[in-house]
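Hi all, posting the design record for the shared folder.

TITLE: backbone redesign
STEP: 1 of 1
STRUCTURE INPUT:
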């Protein structure tokens, strides 16, 4: 087998190595990109790992944001109505410019603040939707293990081409070691 013959290649489309290219030759693996250039002799590779993963933290944050959005949305109208009714009761019972007037103004301010809960709730819901989409997309992670270190390349979504490249590399590595 010619060691300078390209056996397979993979162009990284997303993640930290976006724009880089993995190239598998008969005796080496080359990673080349705008900010990186690395050549790894296949004899130094211990193993190859490919995995599709989802980040459970994104799901947890999405659920928390949805619950916060629901709570803010549910509190907005009742709090607004309650504060405006307290303000009306204070103003109806007193015409002085004293503590009652300050309380009435405070209740009106709280009522206006309660009206802002709905737009904030929509923002939280939008953030939760984005996190749910990112959770559903997941990541495909390609890991090269050496005797004392690892190199990983993660791309967004389930990337079948990266999985195929990793399988071909693993088969080639097994042939060389076997």
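Okay, here is what came back for every position:
SEQUENCE:
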């Amino acid at each position: 087998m010619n060691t300078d013959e390209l056996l397979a290649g993979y162009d990284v489309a997303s993640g930290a190595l976006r724009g880089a290219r993995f190239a598998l030759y008969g005796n080496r693996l080359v990673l080349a990109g705008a900010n990186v250039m690395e050549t790894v002799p296949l004899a130094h590779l211990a193993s190859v790992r490919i995995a599709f993963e989802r980040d459970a933290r994104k799901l947890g944050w999405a659920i928390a944001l949805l619950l916060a959005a629901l709570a803010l949305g549910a509190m907005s109208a009742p709090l607004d109505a309650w504060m405006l009714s307290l303000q009306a009761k204070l103003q109806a019972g007193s015409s002085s410019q004293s503590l009652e007037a300050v309380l009435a103004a405070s209740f009106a301010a709280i009522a206006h603040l309660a009206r802002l809960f709905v737009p904030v709730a929509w923002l939280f819901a939008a953030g939760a939707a984005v996190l749910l989409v990112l959770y559903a997309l997941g990541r495909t992670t390609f890991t090269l293990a050496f005797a004392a270190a690892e190199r990983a390349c993660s791309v967004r979504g389930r990337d079948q081409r990266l999985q195929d490249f990793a399988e071909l590399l693993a088969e080639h590595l097994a042939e060389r070691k076997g």
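COMMENT: The two ends are 16 Å apart (CA to CA).
Let me know if anyone wants the other runs.
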